[in-house]
Amino acid sequence: MQQISSPTEGEKSPSHDSVVIKAHTSAKETTFSQNRYTHQTSQDQGEVYLIAEESAALVIVHGDEKQKDFGNQILVALDANRFKVKAVKFETQELPFLVKGGEGLYSIIIFQNLLTYINLREVDRSLIDGYCQRYKVGIVAFTGPSLDNEYSMKVGNFPLVMDKKMTLKDLSLNSESPVFHITKTKRTLSGILPGEDWTVFRSNHSTYQSIALAKTRTQDMLNLVPDSKPILHTTVIHDLGHYDGIQRVLFGSDFTLWLHYILFLDSVRFLSGGRLSVDLKRYILVDVDDIFVGSAGIRMKRIDVEAMLVEQDILAKLVPGFRFNLGFSGKFFQRGTDEENLGDERLLKHADKFWWFPHMWNHMQPHKYNSSSKMIQDMKKNKQFAQDNWIPVHKGYAVAPHHSGVYPVQEELYSSWKSVWQIEATSTEEYPHLRPSRNRRGFIHKGIMVIPRQTCGLFTHTNFFREYPGGRSRLDKSINGGELFRTVINTPFYLMMQKKAKKSNRFMCSGLDKYPTCNSTPVETAKKYFEIFPKEKDPLWRNPCEDSRHLEIWSSKKSCSKLPQLVVVGPQKTGTTALYSFLSLHPYIRSNLPSEKTFEELQFFSGPNYNNGLDWYMKYFPGGKNNSDQYRFEKSATYFDSPYAATRVHALLPTAKIIAILTNPANRSYSWYQHMKVHEDKAALNHSFYEVITAGSDSGRSVKSLQKRCLEPGKYATHLYRWLKYFPKQILIIDGNQLRDDPVSVMSKVQRFIGIQPRLDYKHFLRYDSRKGFFCIIKRKGKSECLGKSKGRIYPPMEPRAVEYLNLYYRQHNLQLHSLLENYGLTVPDWLVKDLARPPQG
């Protein structure tokens, strides 16, 4: 391929006087004039186009089942690097919104198959290209397998030709390319390249620059000709954007060649302007587990200890400051053969050359302890053993046998660690699940940082290089493009554990010479982890009974049958307390025990109580395995409009049924204001309702806070959509007016929804109280028991201007709610039908 430094005479870019960028599928399309475009970093006059801070990669996957696997590989690569991704199967889905609020939503657009991009409809191609030109967004595309008999074809309207169905060898890189970040520019791959269906690119246009080049397999024959120069074919090409203002990187094959994986990540970084980038620095920590543990005959001998010291010195040259981190269980010291006992002594002699962390004294799993006092006692034994033998335990880090108690959380372990060892950090491979390893994350609980650990399938059950399952070839494959290779590439934190430290460690650090590396202490590593990934600090409690592995390391004293099957999510001031009382009348329906602070509401999924952990939540649900006939529920009206409650409820209670009660949002807003006024909220006492709901940005903090709680929950469609996303077929919508006026029929509907048997005939348990103005519970001897004074108050009428303001304020939200309910096949409340039938005002 010829490389031309400047455009040749006569070259012209195609004219695009205006390009349409899709703003909304059902709304008007917005047209941006090309000559008004200014890059976001430009100081020139003109309109500035910005990429949203939380931008993502848009991936257009191919519909062909034969190519489905590679589409998944692209998505996995992006997800493993924690890039936000939107995937679209373009044959069956519309092009998604590209712009929202004037900001571009995507930093890069990726086509699994180049032909999908080339053959887009004119309107869709115009949308994609226009967006890329305006927002300086690049495109990555792969050629995919040849689906026809052509060996050469022109690429759309581009000055580019593809030659297909080639076999290649000896790949090299163009060191002049600006794309490289992870990739070593001087790397060459000698020998036959995998696959027989390569595509190469050729063009004389200055916009194209080679990234990777290779020879054909017949090149050796040509090289026999005197003075002949090898012909290099471009396998990965960079469109510099000279032709039409869009930069692209095109690949002539998929990830079968492992180098393409890192070239792909480099291309994503370069074409996204660094927004989607892999950090080069790597934090290395190798825990050597079970020191002194093991039956006689398989433990470390003196020669093994010496080999470990030599290995540590070698690794320190690759990773400055490297030390093995040894986890000890003191009970097993000097319990091996004579040779192994000499190995124990040798470890203690060189104890200051390693880092050390406490395992359990007797290697017992935390969930098997009968009491926290026994656990603390054993930890103290291990601590005394360390002091007696001058073991320099590295402050602040510990690991539990088999990760028991770390996740799913055993509260006694966390409190005992704090009490005895002042633990600040630990690690596990169990959160959120063991597999796939790329999805492992960290969290912080009770002040202890839990960081994810990788295993890569290396030496978790074997000790010697020759014993690696599958032999040397399988190990090489793991290093060259396989699980180990991708673990190093995908995460800046490289936490490993093995049973013994042998020469295998060199392989675990293979490929790290490209990266700046450090061997920080475990606590320093944990702090750095949450500095880089701050969003992971808050845990997401999942149902232990949904994972067989988690059940193995969860206490037998606990049971998922205690968890509720129904959650009443609110919103506030819609009748949730009344529904709670009516449900509690059923002999087979049990609510949670009351909380001292929040009474019948636990408010677990929407507030600070979530940080108390799963054990805290479960203690409020009585019974266990012997109470399987009980149908459990909880009601917390703060859940409905919480931005994260739906995600949390679904993680812990994926099969739960959800009830939401909706009333006219204007009335709900007014009721909340009056509620706060009764509770002597200063903002409510000092300002009228109209003043609160119309308060401007310059109003005091207390007024703005009250305004938010009055108005925000009533944007029902926004909040309900979050719940429908997780529970599309498990939600019942109750009309709050109907619950007030005809609770008997509503409770019949509720019982059918949850499937309870036998059903209760509520006409024998509820009676209308004319004095209170709503239905009350019939108690013994025929007397009625109504809800407290705070419920069912009669308020003065809302002033007309407030009514008019709120009707206009909620009009669009109510239209969206109506559409949402119909789309999901849910009942539309009568009050909503009447509200939308009224002519809009203003």
TrEMBL record:
Tagged with keyword Disulfide bond: yes
Membrane-topology descriptor:
Single-pass type II membrane protein
- Keyword Calcium assigned to the entry: answer is no
Primary location recorded for the protein, binned into one broad class = Golgi
User: Which keywords has UniProt assigned to this entry?
Assistant: Disulfide bond, Glycoprotein, Golgi apparatus, Hydrolase, Membrane, Multifunctional enzyme, Signal-anchor, Transferase, Transmembrane, Transmembrane helix
In which pathway is this protein known to take part? Glycan metabolism; heparin biosynthesis; Glycan metabolism; heparan sulfate biosynthesis
Domain Heparan sulfate-N-deacetylase N-terminal, by residue range, is 58-271
Location relative to the cell: Golgi apparatus membrane
- Per its UniProt record, what Pfam families does this chain match? HSNSD-CE (PF12062), HSNSD_N (PF25119), Sulfotransfer_1 (PF00685)
Q: Which residues form the active site?
A: 573
- Taxonomically, the superkingdom here is Eukaryota
Please give the Gene Ontology molecular function terms for this protein.
deacetylase activity; heparan sulfate N-sulfotransferase activity; hydrolase activity
Q: Which GO terms describe its biological process?
A: heparan sulfate proteoglycan biosynthetic process; heparin proteoglycan biosynthetic process
Disulphide bridges, residue numbers = 776-786
Give every Heparan sulphate-N-deacetylase deacetylase domain span. Answer: 282-485
Indicate which residues the UniProt annotation says bind 3'-phosphoadenylyl sulfate: 671, 791-795
* Broadest EC class assigned to this enzyme: transferase
What EC number(s) does its UniProt record assign? 2.8.2.8
A cellular component term from Gene Ontology for this protein is:
Golgi membrane
Specify the Sulfotransferase domain's residue ranges.
564-812
Q: Which family does it belong to?
A: Belongs to the sulfotransferase 1 family. NDST subfamily.
> How is this protein named in the record?
[heparan sulfate]-glucosamine N-sulfotransferase
* Organism of provenance: Stichopus japonicus
